[in-house]
Amino acid sequence: MFSKEYLPTWKFLLRFEIISFIGRMFFVRKPPKVADLNLLNLGCGDQYFDGWVNADFFRVRFWVVPKSGWSFDFRYPMKCDDNHWDGIFTEHTIEHLHPLDDYNLFKELFRTLKPGCWLRISAPGLNKILEDLTEENREEYELRHSDYNSRAELIWSLTQNWGHLSVWDPELLTKFLSDIGFVNISEVQYGQGSDKKIIKELKERKHESLYVEAQKPL
Predict the structure, then answer these.
(1) Percentage, residues of the chain above pLDDT 90
(2) pTM of the model
(3) Could you tell me which of 48, 213, 201 has the C-alpha nearest to residue 117?
(4) Following DSSP, what letter does each residue of 175-205 receive, concatenated?
């Protein structure tokens, strides 16, 4: 039950910071131009979208990053012009950053997003987990979370496993985005939203995910 698989060792953290330093010193560049529309897939992992700029942390094997790939450390300012993106999508990425780093990242996304364009965020939703923990949803809890021996273990996994450094619900995410200047902020459902071209979330994450969209003012 209490696996050390996700514990950050000093070797892992040191390697991460060394890669970040080398990347920021020698490999930072502006985002590539891959299509007429500038669309950003932030925290892409191995999920590359055709016609999008697919951004993630620096890779040691930098030569295998495709032409649409863009590498940088999300904790630091983006090397990107103001009012550049026609849309931004990010899925299950912000929970891997400390809230202060997320706040600074959102400011960068606001700066680089074109006026009137949309940001779509998907993240593990604390509200989704808490709904499953209510007595009336006991069957849903047992169906979705059968790998856990108790409800406390489920919360512990959400907040401390998988490299998670922050936890989000609609209220907190709305406050962050509103303070930065985004407007028309709302929680939306899977597959629904104001800008159809940036609805790209994975169906298998639907039951656990919070979806929020926000617009940069005109």
Answers:
(1) 73
(2) 0.92
(3) 213
(4) HHHHHHT-EEEEEE-TT--S-GGG----GGG
Q: What is the pLDDT of residue 154?
A: 82
| DSSP secondary structure, 9-20, as one string | -HHHHHHHHHHH
Confidence of residue 141 (pLDDT cuts 50, 70, 90): low
Cβ proximity of 159 and 167 under 8 Å: yes
pLDDT reading at 73 higher than 90: yes
Instruction: Give residue 217's pLDDT.
Output: 98
Residue whose entry in the numeric block shows the structure tokens 């929680």: 187
Measured at the CA of 84, the angle between CA 24 and CA 209, to 5 degrees, comes to: 80
Amino acid residing at 127: N
Cβ atoms of residues 59 and 127 within 8 Å: no
Q: Name residues whose C-beta falls within 8 Å of residue 86's C-beta, 6 or more positions apart in sequence.
A: 37, 38, 39, 114, 117
| CA neighbor of 31 nearest in space, from 77, 68, 74 | 68
